[in-house]
Amino acid sequence: MGPEDLDEVLAIERASFSMPWSRGAFLYEMQQNRVARCWVMREEGRVIGYLCLWEIADELHITNIAVHPAHRRQGVGRLLLQGVLEDARERRLRLVVLEVRPSNTEARTLYEGFGFRVIGLRRGYYYDTGEDALVMEAHLDRPSGEAASAGNPQKA
Length: 156
Prior knowledge:
This protein is of the alpha+beta class. It contains 5 helices and 6 strands. It has one domain: Gcn5-related N-acetyltransferase (GNAT) (Aminopeptidase, 3-Layer(aba) Sandwich). It is about 35% helix and about 35% strand.
């Protein structure tokens, strides 16, 4: 992701979240936060999804992931997450953590498919609604549900 992507990223951000990140927040992550990494996924030159994370020591913290409304339920989020997790495993990172609204069942299902499990709760995390956040983690040194099933078919 670069500054030239921000108009499209911000449109997706505003369509996806009740508390969207600002242009300044994305610029800070890209230009000043040394542990932050942000990626976009394109189709025919247009940004259709993005993912931001922090990499600290041998851990990743996913801070933001969203897909353009016209491209949801087409595997874009899955591909973004899969790419990040595969890269992290190749580089021998150990753990990935994220927060998600309990009411966001689509995201939770996606994360669970990659082996994430709920490990905690942050009370009142989302100040727009006061909703709690579920803290989820996945150990990268263990096969995830999706990664394991892709390479190792299970007997029925």
